[in-house]
Amino acid sequence: MNPQNNIRTIYEDDDLLAVDKPAGIVVFPEGQTLKTGEKTLIDYLLEKHPELKQAGESPRYGIVHRLDKDTSGVLLVAKTNEALIFLQNQFINRGVEKKYTALAVGSIKEEKGQIKTLIGRAKQDKRKQKAYPLDWPDKTGKREAETLFWVRQRFEQYTLLDVQIKTGRRHQIRCHLSFLHHPIAGDKFYGFKNQPTPEGLQRQFLHASYLKIKLPNGETKEFNSELPEDLQNILNNLK
Q: How far is Cα 36 from Cα 29, in angstroms, rounded to an integer?
């Protein structure tokens, strides 16, 4: 199946394209090693929307923010340079509300919580991020990160969470839940050795479900993405 057929347009105007990103696609090449012939999300979008080349620069073009390869959900793409700068400033100035759905391993005792740490590259593996306490003496290369979570549903070995990030650090939710000792189910990168994985889960259970942002025309818009079928099936089987 052509992944392009799975890239649903949530919203479109003269400045912006909001899409529902499927899992398994790199958003744009950024230090990742792509397989020969592997297309990125921006490649697929350019086939349908060549005007995106007017925004930003290759290879990122109008991509406003990132989602990891195996994370699905709402992603914004600007159509003009002006829109790209405006929307990215919303992210920089924390004017964006972003919520995710995540399935964490184990039983999280609290009904809601806040994770606030420093985040920086892990010394043992530069591809990974590592969380450090806020009072960590060496702050070089580390930035504050804040994640809020609420328990939506409990299962025998897992906890389904609504997660909101106040900062947009790389791998923030994956890193923070691992820091709590409740990594995301199916996350091979930040998970622990011998942690359980729901039967049939082929990726990390993380979905960008909601995004609220002010647009260049002054209007504030909300974008929603339903949980994809592969993740919904996992929950149905856990019940």
A: 13
Asked if 129 and 187 count as a contact pair (C-beta separation under 8 A), the reply is no
**Predicted local distance difference test score (pLDDT) of residue 127:** 84
Mean pLDDT value across residues 61-73: 94
pLDDT tens string 122-139: 888 878 899 999 999 988
Q: 85 vs 42, 60, 80, 167, CA distance in Å?
A: 18, 13, 9, 18
Pairing of strands 158-165, 206-214: unpaired
Q: How far apart are CA 7 and CA 45, in angstroms?
A: 9
* Nearest-angstrom CA–CA distance, 202 and 211: 25
Reply yes or no on whether the pLDDT at 62 is more than 90.
yes
What does the alpha-carbon distance between residue 55 and residue 73 come to, in Å, rounded to a whole number? 22
Structure tokens at 182: 């409740």
User: Of 15, 20, 43, 68, which is the active-site residue?
Assistant: 68
- DSSP state for residue 169 in the 8-state scheme: -
Q: Using an 8 Å Cβ cutoff, are 200 and 234 in contact?
A: yes
Cβ proximity of 51 and 79 under 8 Å = yes
Q: Is 68 a catalytic residue?
A: yes
Give the pLDDT mean for 28-34: 68
Q: What is the pTM of this model?
A: 0.93
